[in-house]
Amino acid sequence: MTRETLLNTLLMALLIGVPLWAWVADEPFTITLATRAVIFALAAVGLNIALGLGGLVSLGHAVYFGIGGYAMGILAYHAQTYTPLMAWPFVIEGTKFMPVIWLVAMVVSAVVAFVIGLLSLRTSGVYFIMITLAFGQMFYFFTISWPRYGGEDGLSIYVRNGFPGLNTLDPIQFFAICLALLCAVLWLNARIVKSPFGLALGAARQVPQRVETVGLDPFRLKLVALVISGTICGLAGALFADLNRFVSPTMFSWQMSGELIVFIILGGLGRVFGPVAGATLFVLLEHLLGGVSDYFLFYVGLLLLLVVLFTPGGIYGILLGRSKS
Amino acid sequence: MTAVLEVRGITRRFGALVANEDVTLDLRAGEIHAVIGPNGAGKSTLIAQICGGVTPDAGMIRFLGQDITGANTQARARMGLGRTFQISALAMENSVLDNALLGALGASGRVWRLWHPVLKDRALRERAEDALRRVQLIEFSDARVGDLSHGQRRQLEVAMALTLEPKAFILDEPMAGLSAEGTKELTGLLDTLRQEAPILLVEHDMDVVFALADRITVLDYGRVIATGTVDDIRRNPKVQSAYLGEEA
Ligand SMILES: Nc1ncnc2c1ncn2[C@@H]1O[C@H](COP(=O)(O)OP(=O)(O)OP(=O)(O)O)[C@@H](O)[C@H]1O
Ligand SMILES: [Mg+2]
Predict the structure, then answer these.
(1) Residue B235 is part of a domain; what is its CATH number?
(2) Alpha-carbon gap, residue B189 to B181, rounded angstroms
(3) Of A13, A64, A97, B97, which is least surrounded by CB within 10 A?
């Protein structure tokens, strides 16, 4: 076992062990915190496919997180009010069934990521960052000014959505669902990194002109990476909304996009499990410092600065030495 | 003899600078055609126009009988142009084998697999390792390209062109920075390679050029000042004053 695998194992043991302990000790709030960390980690792992592997610094991934959130919010809202989502040309009903909600969240996110990719991937560097940021703001202000689903106030869902065979109202069972999805996506990510596609994408990040000279299209590689990445963030968004039983435009805010990038940088760029470590640390700090000080984000910013300036690549870099790959 | 690659009247300006002016040359089956000229003569610009990346202001490029002047780089690569860069363009964070695999991937069309590990694709691996063996890099398969010497990176450049199994090689100073030993080995390789596909070879080392070339084109200030066999070029007074004079 390499040291990185050991660290991955420790991290996952922590993420499973703490909630299990909290379950035994009857501390549901701790389980909720862990669930929050797992969902943030899921979103950050999604972003990492675009950012870490593809080199696409998107400051607009909250778009997909928010789409996932609103997919859950809108579908569940119609189910709880017994009104159809759409009556013409055919009837679409709301649903409280998680798998359907996830599917909708993922499909819509994928389509939006495809369109945003087509429009933004022609640019690079600062322009790419600005365009993705602009898309995020577009969605943010659109939902604020859309009264049908709560506008600025957001949308509350009274009962958590269901999953066949499980009681999702039980915090530990909902946590287990989120964790299982995180593991599945981590596995997918690890496979992608080793796949031909991952190799070509990594090369497109480093030397796009070389990728073209072997007959491959960097644009298409990045577009597919963005779609996969957005799809995963959409799933995370649906889970996040279900955790809070609430969605609001803040899920689309640029701060949300920024936080996802922060998770990756804190954890360690270019590591499959880096975003998990980063998201966990963030939620931990949020919990520990958030109560003590109103300036919690100031401290996170300070920490980020230290990590970027003085460490060889986040938590993983500190614990494993010089970054790999 | 039929030309595999034809360059007709290519002109390219960068602002006021004319990098290529009315350049015409062709590459025929089985030959090594060397392009020589002083620094800044426009050799790399010519290659960039042949392989894609720089668009000519005027003129036409035909490859395998098709007009490729407007085609993009990927399309030209897929048609069978195998290029090396004067300044190595390699995925520095990856291993030597990864880079060779990338070349093989382009040719195989199996890039859209997201699940199957690339290292377990036997056919792809064989192709990549074959190319590494031919440039004597096989023992360095697992080394990170960032840790390679300059000369080894040049060899890997050539290996990546080999993995494409191209219909024409377009090599921009593949020997630059190689040791005497390395130069000798690569010269031997290129000598046999011309049977597989003709080579357009930009090279500064005149010993290599005279040893390998079937024909030579001399560029100076973006213009072709001479084309011919090794003996023609050696005897050409214009060439001697423009280029060989400084070395001889
Ligand atoms: N993208 C560019 N923009 C502006 N000028 C350029 C560009 N590319 C090349 N040039 C200029 O065009 C001229 C020809 O350059 P080129 O690289 O083709 O020369 P070369 O024959 O390959 O030289 P060397 O032997 O040094 O490799 C040079 O004066 C160079 O500065
Ligand atoms: Mg050059």
Answers:
(1) 3.40.50.300
(2) 13
(3) A13
pLDDT tens by residue, A11-47: 999 999 999 999 999 999 999 999 999 999 999 999 9
- Given a cut of 70, whether residue B232 has pLDDT beyond it is yes
Q: Give the structural domain span for A180.
A: 3-266
Asked whether residue A32 is domain-assigned, the answer is yes
Query: B169: buried, middle or exposed (CB in 10 Å: 19+, 13-18, 0-12)?
Result: buried
Q: Which atom of ligand 1 is nearest to the CA of B86?
A: 27
A199, A217, A228: residue with CB nearest B102: A199
* Residue B152 to chain A, least CA–CA distance (Å): 17
Task: Give A272's contacts (C-beta < 8 A, 6+ positions apart).
Answer: A8, A45, A48, A186, A189, A190, A193
**What single string gives the DSSP state of each residue in A228-254?**
HHHHHHHHHHHHHHHHHTEE-GGGGSH
Strand order through the sheet with B17-28? B17-28, B3-14, B58-63, B66-67
Report which residue type is found at B147: D
pLDDT value of position B245: 55
Tokens standing for residue B14? 């960068």
Mutate to test the pocket of ligand 1, among B18, B23, B45, B218 (most ligand atoms within 8 A of CB): B45
* Of A237, A261, A257, A236, residue with least CA distance to A185: A236
Mean pLDDT, rounded, of chain A:
93
Give the max Cα distance, chain A.
Answer: 60
Domain boundary among B127, B149, B164: B164
Q: Which of A197, A210, A215 sits opposite B114 (nearest CB)?
A: A197
* Cβ <8 Å between A195 and B110: no
Asked whether the predicted pLDDT for residue A87 surpasses 90, the reply is no
Q: Report whether B209 contacts B37 (CB < 8 A).
A: no
pTM: 0.93
For residue A320, being part of any structural domain is answered with: no
CA distances from A143 to A61, A158, A298, B206 (A): 16, 20, 28, 69
- Contact of B173 with B86, CB cutoff 8 Å: yes
Determine the atom of ligand 1 nearest the C-alpha atom of B46.
Answer: 18
* Residue B246 lies in domain: 1-80+166-248
Beta-bridge partner residues of B7: B25, B61
d(CA A119, CA A113): 10
Q: Does A322 touch chain B (CB under 8 A)?
A: no
Q: pLDDT (tens digit, 9 = 90+) per residue, A167-217?
A: 999 999 999 999 999 999 999 999 999 999 999 999 999 999 999 999 999
Least confident of A142-151, A219-228, A261-270, A309-318: A309-318
Which H or E element spans position B163?
helix B150-163
